[in-house]
Amino acid sequence: MTDMGPLHFCLGIQVFQDPTTKSITLSQRSYIHSILFKYHVDACNGIDTPLPVALKHITPKTHEKTPSYPYTNVLDSIQYLVSCTRLYICFTTNFLSRHMHNPSSLHVMYLKQLLRYLKRTNDLSLTYKYNPSNFFLFVYLTLIGEVILALGNQHQATYFYLLLNSLMAK
């Protein structure tokens, strides 16, 4: 194993580390651009909301013809954004995923609106800043139920350890 220096790019996520402010910023700008380019939405105008304010809940009938649009592929690509840096579009992707196997033309329109929203918010990123007054706790659960705690306030970590062990004992 060799040290290659600070992390700059990993799995479609660009990482910016600022030692002066003790912050780490995660951005998926290039990944969003590749999604927009792949599905030919890169030249569109961006919009301010991922979904319309008044949603229409339509369940397509089984005999209705499904539009020929790579609905599932686009949603799969967007799911990766949700799991990494775009947590706030979770409701939108969940709503659109409900109709993944039989999307109507309205759902395709909603999906294209989400892509246009991603075009508009392409420059947003997720920043983690170090704050010594905040409590950070990392929990690792092993297969046999042991709890290993690290990097936390000792008093709160002990309480959390006891709470977890009492819950697992039941």
Write the H/E string, N to C: EEEHHHHEEEH
Helix content: 25-40%
Given the structure, what is the number of helices? Answer: 5
Q: Please tell me what the overall shape is.
A: elongated
Distance between the termini: 43 Å
Protein name: Reverse transcriptase Ty1/copia-type domain-containing protein
Keywords: Membrane, Transmembrane, Transmembrane helix
Transmembrane segments: 135-152
Organism: Ceratopteris richardii
Care to describe what's here?
With 170 residues, this protein is α+β, with helices and mostly antiparallel strands. The protein folds into 2 domains: 25-126, no CATH class; 133-170, no CATH class. It has 5 helices and 6 strands, in the order E-E-E-H-H-H-H-E-E-E-H. It has helices at residues 29-38, 71-84, 90-97, 105-120, 154-169, and strands at residues 9-10, 13-18, 23-27, 126-129, 138-141, 147-150. It has a 4-stranded antiparallel sheet. A hairpin with a 5-residue loop joins strand 5 (138-141) and strand 6 (147-150). The longest helix has 16 residues, at 105-120. It is elongated and about 55 Å long. This is Reverse transcriptase Ty1/copia-type domain-containing protein.
